[in-house]
């Protein structure tokens, strides 16, 4: 019988349960988007700038912004708990920690206290968000893993949108420090929902198998993938189991191309998030259709072109002051955001986890988080000074780096589309993993 006739309906009882679980876990991505984007929006408020002295893009501003990323880097060391205590334990503890960090920020009386709050939030956000992505990858069926798990990171943009909306509303309703304190305290909302909800969902079946609880793992797989029935597909998969700059400094970049009014910057920041969200959601589906390699390579090459166009148009605006170059720079910024969201946003937490075995996934994601966090922290600390001193040449550096990345992707990245996590071991055990993955990928079709 054709496989599509025996495949459980993607809108049946099992998948509805799976989607409900995913909707809860997705809130951690929304939380991350709110946390990461809020500081850039807050820094447009005169009351925030006056309280913390962040009116200009200087080293002190960079330190305030980067404190969350430093916390995120150190938080990566805690991901080993995802192996020893379970994915849900880390999601819950991380969510509770984010609430503590938000409260410290919201009631800050000095810069150091605000930085401690951001550090705490970054530390626990890494634990919650990375464990969330691992969990989603491990409960998703292979043929829809790119879409289901990839959609997680797209909800980052919903958080960015909510960050802009909350700042706009509070700025219009409140005067003084309440205009920034209330949006900061709103960061408690989503982690509170997640911390409460994870008590009622099943643990990752792959973690259960790794911890000698195969019966629970089998029942979880059946309930999420086959309407509670141990089908041939579930039995087979069960047998195999046993054998993350622009959002921070967009207001500054807009100022550099002649857009200076605070409300205009906030609206453009919000629009950037809305457009990015749509592109990211579309990208999650496209990765299951075209494959990871092709999407990442083509999008990275396009990002290099966008960075080159931004550098050139910004340079011409600096030289001539003509509005057409300002508009061209704005187009380059938004095009970059759309392409990045399409190619990278959904895959940032998915692809690194896909290419690791079950026993190394949490540790591997910790290393990926540390590398990404370190790079982000360096960018955040150096970007204000670099943009001020180098001007448009700053973006040529990213242009060159994106071309290097595209070459690395073409040479070394394997295709993971359409395979279970266990089947990928066959690819890496071959003499030429890239060629093997491409050959096998060409035979797959995702409906």
Kindly describe this structure.
- With 447 residues, the chain is mostly helical.
- It has one domain (3-441): Growth Hormone, Chain: A (Up-down Bundle).
- Helices cover 77% and strands 0% of the residues.
- It is built from 23 helices and no strands.
- It has helices at 3-6, 13-42, 46-52, 59-75, 81-84, 87-106, 111-139, 145-154, 156-173, 178-185, 189-197, 205-210, 214-225, 232-242, 246-256, 262-290, 292-320, 323-345, 351-354, 361-390, 393-412, 424-428, 433-441.
- α2 (13-42) crosses α9.
- The longest helix has 30 residues, at 13-42.
- It is globular, with a radius of gyration of 22 Å.
- The protein starts with a helix and ends in a 6-residue tail after the last helix.
Low-confidence stretches: 1-8, 234-245, 441-447
Classified by CATH, the class is Mainly Alpha
- What integer is the average pLDDT? 80
Calculate Rg over CA atoms.
Answer: 22 Å
CATH topology type: Growth Hormone, Chain: A
**N/C terminus separation:** 17 Å
Strand percentage: under 5%
Elements, N to C (H/E): HHHHHHHHHHHHHHHHHHHHHHH
Structural class: mainly alpha
List keywords for this structure.
447 residues, 23 helices, Growth Hormone, Chain: A, mainly alpha
Topology, please?
Elements: H1 3-6, H2 13-42, H3 46-52, H4 59-75, H5 81-84, H6 87-106, H7 111-139, H8 145-154, H9 156-173, H10 178-185, H11 189-197, H12 205-210, H13 214-225, H14 232-242, H15 246-256, H16 262-290, H17 292-320, H18 323-345, H19 351-354, H20 361-390, H21 393-412, H22 424-428, H23 433-441
Helix pairs in contact: 2-7, 2-8, 2-9, 2-11, 2-13, 2-15, 4-7, 4-20, 6-7, 6-10, 6-11, 7-20, 8-16, 9-10, 9-16, 13-14, 16-17, 16-18, 17-18, 17-21
Transmembrane segments: 21-40, 60-79, 150-174, 295-318, 325-344, 364-382, 394-414
Membrane topology: Multi-pass membrane protein
GO molecular function: carbohydrate:proton symporter activity
């Amino acid at each position: 019988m054709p496989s599509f006739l025996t495949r459980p309906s993607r809108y049946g009882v099992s998948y509805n349960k799976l989607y409900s679980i995913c909707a809860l876990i997705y809130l951690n991505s929304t939380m991350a988007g709110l946390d990461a984007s809020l500081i850039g929006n807050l820094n447009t408020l005169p009351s925030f700038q006056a309280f913390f002295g962040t009116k200009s893009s200087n080293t002190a501003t960079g330190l305030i912004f980067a404190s969350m990323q430093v916390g995120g880097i150190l938080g990566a060391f805690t991901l080993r708990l995802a192996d020893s205590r379970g994915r849900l334990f880390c999601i819950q503890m991380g969510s509770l920690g984010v609430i503590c960090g938000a409260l410290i920020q919201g009631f800050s009386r000095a810069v150091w206290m605000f930085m401690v709050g951001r550090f705490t939030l970054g530390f626990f956000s890494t634990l919650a968000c990375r464990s969330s992505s691992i969990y989603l990858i491990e409960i998703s069926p292979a043929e829809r893993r790119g879409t289901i798990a990839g959609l997680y990171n797209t909800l980052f943009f919903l958080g960015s949108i909510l960050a802009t909306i909350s700042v706009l509303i509070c700025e219009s309703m409140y005067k003084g420090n309440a205009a920034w304190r209330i949006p900061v305290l709103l960061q408690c909302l989503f982690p509170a929902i997640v911390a409460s909800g994870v008590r009622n969902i099943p643990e990752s079946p792959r973690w259960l198998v790794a911890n000698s609880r195969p019966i629970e793992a089998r029942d979880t797989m059946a309930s999420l993938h086959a309407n509670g029935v141990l089908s041939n597909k579930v039995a087979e998969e069960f047998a195999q189991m046993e054998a993350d700059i622009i959002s921070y400094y967009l207001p500054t970049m807009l100022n550099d191309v002649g857009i200076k009014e605070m409300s205009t910057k906030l609206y453009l920041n919000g629009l950037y998030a809305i457009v990015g969200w749509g592109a990211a959601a579309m990208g999650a589906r496209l990765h299951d259709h075209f494959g990871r390699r092709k999407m990442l390579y083509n999008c990275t090459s396009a990002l290099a072109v966008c960075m080159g166009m931004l550098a050139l148009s910004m340079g011409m605006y600096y030289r001539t002051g003509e509005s057409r170059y300002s508009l061209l720079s704005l187009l380059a910024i938004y095009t970059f955001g759309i392409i990045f969201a399409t190619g990278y946003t959904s895959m940032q937490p998915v692809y690194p986890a896909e290419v690791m075995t079950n026993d190394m996934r949490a540790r591997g994601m910790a290393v990926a988080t540390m590398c990404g966090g370190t790079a982000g922290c360096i960018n955040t600390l150096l970007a204000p000074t670099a943009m001020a001193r180098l001007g448009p040449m700053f973006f040529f550096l990213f242009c060159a780096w994106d071309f290097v990345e595209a070459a690395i992707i073409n040479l070394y990245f394997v295709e993971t589309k359409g395979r279970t996590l266990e089947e990928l071991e066959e690819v890496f055990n071959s003499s030429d993993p890239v060629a093997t993955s491409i050959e096998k990928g060409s035979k797959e079709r995702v409906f």
